[in-house]
Amino acid sequence: MSAASGSGNGSKAHITLRMRPERRLIRQDGSFRHIDFHLRVEQEAVRTEAERTPLTLALVLDRSGSMQGEKIHIAKQAALGVLDRLEERDQVAVVVFDDQIDVIQAKSAVTPAVKASVNAALALIEARANTALHEGWLTGCKAIASESVPAAEAGLSRCFLLTDGLANVGVTDPEQIASEAAGIREHAGIGTSTFGIGNDYNELLLGPMAVAGGGQFHHLRTADEIANTFIGELGDLLAVSARQVRLEIEVESAIQVDLVSTYWSNASSAPTSRWTIAIGDLLSGEERHVIVRFGFPAQQGQDSHVVRARVLWVADGGERSTDWQDIRFSYADQAACEAEARDPSVMHWVGLHESDRAHREAIKRSQEGDLAGARAELNKVATSIAGYAGEDQELQASIAELESTGEQMANAPLSPAMSKEALYHHQTRSRGQKDYRGPKQT
Question: Smallest Cα–Cα separation from 189: which of 114, 311, 62, 281?
């Protein structure tokens, strides 16, 4: 499939979209078919430091009692390390929370005086009390929101939420909080990245929250990884080329749409269905594979169906988009459908992302006490991938991992440490994001 691309007049950010179907023929009684939507930000000329997008950042730090000791000390140092790398063109707000919320720095340009003020304020912060995670995060987002500048015209805005505990004060429902994160990203242009420390936080809250917020979820196993990850994501934020990237897909209302990859989506209808999938902020040269499964209805006087798509993003103060492109799926008899080979390059990504989704679903089921359901999900997907994996070594490894995880869940849920690491790994892989936890590269 040829790629559609776009950059907009005068924009340096240039994105291409390539739509690749596993197969193009569909049975007369209906079929399911996958499409790999491959997005790539084309490599642009190296920008000077003066050309980078200004950053507005909210640092939201948990100071509840479980942060006592080394964790809160390292968290403070990581926050100060972030400030040291920002300039006066950037803006920052700093919030700390337990069951009380304190804005220790209102949104301000990152001047030497502000850096010194935050340093002094953080020195006085001690761990205590419970965890009003939702209110602390929301306060941070509100602290950096702009009431006058449209999201497309503002700079890059992100909230970093760091916690080691469970939300136990105020709003605690993961779905409600994730929906709010999606709304803030969509309407205010503020993304959310979540940083979970240790083994006591709720990964089924922080993971979806980052997906909805268009940011990244980080599982931090040791205090030393806090600084590496804070600075690692900050470094990439300062190099963002295309902001608020979205994939739009348009299909007839009779076609089912199942997003396999780990992204936040919403849909509108009448007379066609249009799905918007939030990809997040991308660097020059970055790419994403978004796997979507389409269910085509039985043939009723129609020879074919069309799936249309385009990519939209914000760059250089305005919204840009690729041209619409489409793939036509045609009805055929059983023999022709069976004779059509699957595209192995598409099925490679389908298998990896189906494996990632199965692990996430199994973790959720196991934490709900449904071990049999968790194992059944893993085994079902392992069997499905085995049907097309062939000699693909990554898919063979995914099958082995699915089977191994199922065996580990035979009698008990995964341990908290294993559950968090598994969710982090599979969410990060599905979204094509980085692991910043290792030693900082110099």
Answer: 281
Rounded to the nearest 5 degrees, what angle is found at the Cα of 326, between the Cα atoms of 322 and 331? 170
Distance (Å) of CA 245 to CA 154, 242, 300, 314:
15, 7, 36, 7
Cβ atoms 422, 401 nearer than 8 A: no
- The answer to whether 382 and 403 have CB atoms below 8 angstroms apart is yes
Beta bridge mates, 162: 61, 195
Written as tens digits, the pLDDT of the chain (442 aa) is: 556 666 543 446 799 999 999 999 999 999 999 999 999 998 665 566 667 889 999 999 999 999 998 889 999 999 999 999 999 999 999 999 999 999 999 999 999 999 999 999 999 999 998 999 999 999 999 999 987 666 556 679 999 999 998 899 999 999 999 999 999 999 999 999 999 999 999 999 999 999 999 999 999 988 779 989 999 999 999 999 999 999 999 999 999 999 999 999 999 876 789 999 999 999 999 999 999 999 999 998 899 999 999 999 998 778 999 999 999 999 999 999 999 999 999 999 999 999 999 999 999 999 999 999 999 999 999 999 999 999 999 999 999 999 999 999 988 999 999 999 999 999 999 999 999 998 644 4
Tally of CB atoms within 10 A around 276: 16
